[in-house]
């Protein structure tokens, strides 16, 4: 934890300022072990292994704990980097471009292993705060601690330990895995100050009926219940099918005969997957099978989120014909 993070922290219980009570271990400019204290209510929070801990996984709701455990394992094992991450990230953030981040204080809702956190920092953000409920914060901290403008926090997205001080907030592929996607979106938006903006990428209900009908029962009843190392091995079988189809059919056909390719099942998405190698495709398949909770949200429902925060200049974009990208500007400070 970098000491300047204190300027952005607020007690998740009472909203009071967070102070550094004492630190017992430093590594260069990072506080590795410490106790933080709320100036208002005197509650204390630990900094462990460089990460402020505002969530007790033993006391949170069962569905949150299960999701945190499953995704936490994933992001401490799929730690690879891919040159396509930047392009993929921008696809989810449409219409945002890299220059949009410059000099902004940015909040990421659900940072996983920190790959998007790093991109935001390298694109010129003044400060980037990545929060995650799971032990993925361990990987995220190790991946970003060398960046002077990055901060990683373990926290519940429904109880963010932060001030309303952010110019931009985004969440990619996280909100639909929470018990209440809209509520988590509103929580994230509540930390964006007037004149700021927010982006969200979520699974779409449209064109995903085959998943909700056939894949979801397997995910909820079996794959999300077994231990992660076993699922890691089992998920290699469907990954093989996706990998061969995307590499040998979808990607070549999209290059040689786009009209014919457009007739293929789930073409946009599987053609997109064809740009990735085995490791990343395995990660994506595992990601779909490991989640205890997953909501598929219609455009109509998604639009209500933006109306509730009274966002302006809202853009909702259909991505790969299976998901929704949303962007809006915050004009009222509630």
Order of strands, main sheet, comes to 7-6-5-8-9-11-10
What is the residue-mean pLDDT, rounded to a whole number? 93
**Which term fits the overall shape?**
globular
Computed CA radius of gyration, to the nearest angstrom: 20 Å
Number of helices: 12
Helix content: 25-40%
Low-confidence stretches: none
Element pattern in H and E = EEEEHHEHEHEEHEHHHHHHHEE
Number of DSSP strands? 11
Give me the secondary-structure category.
Answer: alpha/beta
| Distance linking N and C termini | 29 Å
- Strand fraction: 15-25%
Largest sheet: 7 strands, mixed
Core attributes:
334 residues, alpha/beta, seven-stranded mixed beta sheet, four-stranded antiparallel beta sheet, 12 helices, 11 strands, globular
Brief digest:
With 334 residues, the protein is of the alpha/beta class. Helix content is 38%, strand content 23%. The strands form 2 sheets. It has a 7-stranded mixed beta sheet with strand order 7-6-5-8-9-11-10, with helices on both faces. A 4-stranded antiparallel beta sheet has the order 1-2-3-4.
Tell me what you see in this structure:
By secondary structure, the chain is an alpha/beta fold. Helices cover 38% and strands 23% of the residues. It contains twelve helices and eleven strands. The strands form two sheets. A seven-stranded mixed beta sheet has the order 7-6-5-8-9-11-10, with helices on both faces. The radius of gyration is 20 Å and the shape is globular.
Which helices and strands appear, and what pairs or packs with what?
Blueprint: E1 18-27, E2 30-38, E3 44-48, E4 51-53, H1 62-77, H2 85-92, E5 105-109, H3 115-122, E6 127-132, H4 136-144, E7 150-154, E8 166-172, H5 181-189, E9 192-203, H6 209-223, H7 228-234, H8 236-256, H9 258-261, H10 267-273, H11 278-290, H12 299-308, E10 312-319, E11 323-329
Parallel strand pairs: 5-6, 5-8, 6-7, 8-9
Antiparallel strand pairs: 1-2, 2-3, 3-4, 9-11, 10-11
Helix pairs in contact: 1-4, 1-11, 8-10, 8-11
């Amino acid at each position: 934890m970098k000491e300047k993070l204190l300027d952005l922290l607020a007690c998740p219980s009472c909203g009071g300022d967070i102070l550094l009570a004492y630190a017992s271990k430093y590594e260069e400019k990072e506080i590795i072990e410490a106790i933080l204290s709320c100036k208002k209510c005197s509650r204390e929070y630990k900094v462990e292994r460089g990460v402020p801990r505002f969530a007790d996984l033993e006391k949170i709701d069962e569905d949150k704990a299960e999701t945190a455990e499953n995704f936490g394992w994933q992001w401490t094992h799929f730690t690879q980097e891919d040159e396509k991450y930047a392009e993929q990230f921008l696809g989810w953030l449409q219409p945002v471009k890299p220059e949009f981040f410059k000099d902004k204080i940015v909040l990421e809702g659900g940072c996983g292993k920190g790959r998007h956190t790093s991109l935001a920092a390298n694109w010129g953000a003044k400060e980037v705060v990545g929060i995650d409920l799971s032990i993925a914060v361990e990987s995220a901290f190790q991946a970003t601690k060398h960046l002077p403008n990055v901060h990683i926090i373990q926290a519940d997205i429904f109880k963010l330990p932060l001030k309303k001080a952010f110019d931009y907030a985004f969440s990619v592929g996280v909100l639909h895995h929470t018990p209440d996607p809209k509520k988590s979106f509103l929580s994230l938006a509540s930390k964006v100050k007037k004149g700021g903006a927010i982006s969200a990428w979520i699974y779409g209900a449209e064109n995903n009926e085959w998943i909700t009908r056939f894949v979801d029962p397997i995910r909820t009843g079996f794959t999300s219940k077994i231990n992660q190392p076993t699922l890691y091995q089992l998920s290699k079988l469907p990954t093989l099918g996706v990998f061969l189809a995307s590499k040998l059919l979808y990607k070549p056909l999209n290059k040689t005969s786009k009209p014919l390719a457009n007739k293929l099942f789930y073409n946009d998405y599987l053609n997109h997957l064809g740009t990735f190698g085995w490791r990343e495709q395995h990660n994506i398949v595992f990601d779909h099978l490991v989640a205890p909770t997953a909501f598929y949200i219609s455009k109509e429902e998604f639009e209500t989120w933006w109306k509730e925060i009274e966002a302006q200049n809202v853009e909702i974009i259909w991505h790969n014909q299976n998901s929704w990208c949303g962007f809006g500007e915050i004009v009222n400070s509630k």
